[in-house]
Amino acid sequence: MGCGLIVFPMTDRFISKHRLGQNKRKQAQQENDEMKMNVTEYEFVKAFDDMNRGNNFSRAGRFALYEYLTEMESINDEEIELDVIALCCDFTEWESLEEFRENYGEEYRTFEDVADRTIIIANYPDLTHGTGPDETRFITQDF
Fold it and tell me: What is the Cα–Cα distance from 137 to 133, expressed in whole angstroms?
């Protein structure tokens, strides 16, 4: 595997789910005249700590999630609201495929088996040890 972030598959499941939530939020924002604020990747990562959700994802996982979400914004030409609690409910970071199987079942033998069911964000750098990509940790959209 290379050192780049791997995301597969990019399906309409994620896009449709978040578009529905965004439409409701957009309507609420219009009614409340709320102001938006763009966040950098570092502000995104820190937002989890600020909400006492820093343990939901590793630091590297939060950077990978930010990269994935900003890519989805570009693809769909729609902004995604930073909602730390919703992201913690919608995505999970796994230590290994074995941990994933313990939660979802033995039928998930490979990453491809998991990718047939949901989105996988994998192959992001191990920031804890300063080494290359951690090929065992990965994030999935919950299903």
Answer: 9
Q: What is the pLDDT of residues 90-104, one digit of tens each?
A: 999 999 999 999 999
Mean pLDDT of the chain: 80
Which own/partner pairs from 6-11 qualify as long-range (CB within 8 Å, at least 24 positions apart)?
Answer: 6/120, 6/121, 6/122, 6/123, 7/68, 7/71, 7/119, 7/120, 7/121, 7/122, 8/115, 8/119, 8/120, 9/115, 9/119, 10/72, 10/75, 10/119, 11/119
Q: Could you tell me where the DSSP H helices lie in 77-141?
A: 84-90, 97-104, 111-115
3-state secondary structure of 58: coil
pTM exceeds 0.85, yes or no: no
